[in-house]
Amino acid sequence: MAQQNLVSFFLIAAILLGCQAHASDLCDKAEYVELCKSVVKGATDPKAAIKTSIEFLLSETRRLKASSEKLKSSQFIDVCTDNYDSAIDDLNNSLQNLRSNDIASLQITLSGSLSFYETCNDALAEGGKGVVQVASRLVKQDHKLQHIAANALHFASLLK
């Protein structure tokens, strides 16, 4: 009886460790490992990790768009607002591409969303120190979203 319980314990431990190792492996080769682990929270397959990442990006991008609309309008901040709209469109398209298993289009739309965050940061930097100070939250969050989008692209490269 004790031997059977011990075998059961080891089987359960092996299964749990195997799942944990697989989830860990998913983020191990991501560009931003710690951010990856905090966003995908134990997802064990790339498709689930992409979906979680996109949903997070959508939520945060909508929040940033609302923040940018509240800031004192300038041509530089307006670029961000427009780019957030475009990123939201690409992220919604990414979800659709994920559902239809269109990996090439998924990679294109994820890359597009990444470039929209980069464009916002470039526009704010062009505006100079004053604009960057006013929009410091946008700059900080944009960098985070770029990193999450880069990780999502990594997951997309793991799909077959």
From TrEMBL:
Record has Signal as a keyword: yes
Matching InterPro entries: Invertase/methylesterase_inhib, PCW_Enzyme_Inhibitor, Pectinesterase_inhib_dom
Pfam families, sorted: PMEI
Record bears the keyword Magnesium: no
Signal sequence region: 1-21
Annotated ranges, domain Pectinesterase inhibitor: 18-155
Keyword list, A-Z: Disulfide bond, Signal
GO molecular function, one term: enzyme inhibitor activity
Record-linked SUPFAM superfamilies: Plant invertase/pectin methylesterase inhibitor
Family: Belongs to the PMEI family.
Name of the protein: Uncharacterized protein LOC111477633
Gene (name only): LOC111477633
